[in-house]
Amino acid sequence: MSSIKECPVVYHQTVAWGDMDAFGHVNNVMYYRYMESARIEYLSHIEAFNHGLVSVISASSCRYLRPVFYPDSLKVGVRVVEVRNSGFRMAYVLYSNQQAQVVATGEAIVVMVDAKTFEKAAMPLELKQRIAALEANFGNELDIGLPAEKTSLSNIGRALRDNLRGNIEQIVPKIGGKHHDRD
């Protein structure tokens, strides 16, 4: 993902003087904090914390494309690119307003855990549907792992299959019966 326009949630981040390192540009660790803020904004937007769950990052990465300097402000776009049983994969785009270009991209694997036991927990269907609906508003179609009978195309396919199966079940005994009559 390389465009902020693909992101349903955009977090506005002001670069602070203290975000810079000894080399005079934003320290690489700060990018992870910026992505964290965008992730929490996304999770709040879909009301993820209303299900007795908390999010834990199992993996994350950042690709630094250009250095960022104070003073600047960033747009940190975030979207879900894959839904899993107990979590999802997010993609980030960090856009510098001062440079008018993307300065970094990133990804994170988010796992949902029970807020009381801290055990990995399956995501509720309602939460998956909220993610899919939010992403669909930006043209991002996601497979949220619904059983085949939940999707309209699958319903059509199942109806055709069942109809064909019914026809075969009516024809086969007749053929089989004639075959047995000849023996």
What does this protein structure show overall?
By secondary structure, this protein is an alpha+beta fold. The protein folds into two domains: 4-144, Thiol Ester Dehydrase, Chain A (Roll), CATH 3.10.129.10; 147-183. It is built from three helices and five strands; from the N terminus they run E-H-E-E-E-E-H-H. It has helices at residues 28-45, 125-136, 152-182, and strands spanning 9-14, 53-64, 73-83, 87-96, 101-114. A five-stranded antiparallel beta sheet has the order 1-3-4-5-2. A hairpin with a 4-residue loop joins strand 4 (87-96) and strand 5 (101-114). The chain starts with 8 loop residues before the first strand and ends with a helix. InterPro entries: 4-hydroxybenzoyl-CoA_TE (IPR050563), HotDog_dom_sf (IPR029069). GO terms for molecular function: fatty acyl-CoA hydrolase activity. This is Acyl-CoA thioesterase. Pfam families: 4HBT_2.
